Amino acid sequence: MARTFRTVGVIGLGTMGAGIVEVFARQGTTVVAVEVGEEALQRGRGNLEHSTGRAVTRGKLTAEEQAALLDRVTLTTRLADLAPCDLVVEAVPEVLDLKAQVFAELDAIVAADAILATNTSSLSVTEIAVATANPKRVVGMHFFNPAPVLQLVEVIHTVITADDVFEDVKALAERLGKKPVVVADRAGFIANALLLGYLNHAVAMFESRYATREDIDAAMRLGCGYPMGPLALMDLIGLDTAYAILDTMYRQGRDRLHAPAPVLKQLGSAGLKGRKTGRGFYTYAAPGSSEVVADALTPAPGTEEGAPGRPVSRVGVVGSGTMATGIVEVFAKAGYDVVYATRGAAKAQAVRASLTKSLEKAVQRGKLTEQDRDAALGHVTGSTTLDDLQDVDLVVEAVVEDLAVKQALFENLDEICRPGVILATTTSSLPVVELAAATSRPQDVVGMHFFNPAPVMRLVEV
After folding, report:
1. Active site residues
2. I want to staple 252 with a disulfide (CB 3.0 to 4.6 A). Which of 7, 45, 91, 187 is the partner?
3. DSSP string spanning 301-347?
4. What DSSP element (H or E) covers 424?
5. What pLDDT sits at residue 1?
């Protein structure tokens, strides 16, 4: 039977440490929270009060429950005050020597059967454990930020962790309402090994001016359904923390994916560490605030619209697949006259049938009126010849993702469409410039990459 932890210690009261304190205190556990000095202790108190106060505002806690929770927490600057704890969770900065020193001191303070856990997100739990006289009682217990909200806890079993220690911590995580996953002692464990490579790539894209921070984040939110964009998430994690995790993973595995983008080090050294300092990739209303405010990189109002565009009232779509049909629906619902060209009458009829079915489903779900459905269908004309696209203002091709096929199509469109018509490709991977080069009007060729299902997904990459 798993042991009961009546008193838990937490070392470090930054955003993560304060969140861990809150997790335990919410479950009725007595918590002793330690910081290195009085100033840091007061910041930690502020983190805890702010987080629980926000929960009260959102109706997740009552004022009475918040008061009781805070009463269960003892704040101190003395490690010696952790002596009665059954479990201590360390959440100090990601520096191996610092963590090893903390564990060596803890080892002489707590009882022989107390469990020592590290919240490290990247460092070797084994190397931390061997700083103690009894490494068998050391385990990894990696929470995710914000700890009171996110369910995941990675429980790291080293080659020397006692089985009962591991099982007790895993059972504790479940009692806290978390979902523990079991991880080997490797840098980054599971989540960060996967996540930080993606985030680092996004930082490198921003650093190379591949796209603006706003467009990079919008692409992943609107195109992939992520709740936050990668650069905003980096700010939430903390750029210094992200750098430390990436650096550790890169040193261990030498995977270029984890080689920290140089700008991470530069911003961190300048004190621009993300939300916690009030500025990172974005600028925030205050340190710790989630409110993004305008700064020198924020696009000025109206600049995203650019210069006045060419007038478009009649659109051509080439293709008969799911994507092409979705693009036809998008334009038709927006009031554009659409001519779609397919190979053969059967495919043209299939597009019409799919379009009718999709619009009818929208009516049944209350997302479209019957009048709007009929109007959209009235805007649409099917064709089996590209020649019927000669009078459109814009053509969007959505044929098979084959460069030779698309190039041949653009050569034909170049001959059929009048001068000034915009030729767009919804390719997801092929070089748009090679399609443009297949025409005599490369300046009129653009990428217009919709996401599937086009009527639902808001993102378009231009």
Report:
1. 121, 142, 154, 192
2. 187
3. TTGGG-S------EEEEE--SHHHHHHHHHHHHTT-EEEEE-SSHHH
4. strand 422-425
5. 76
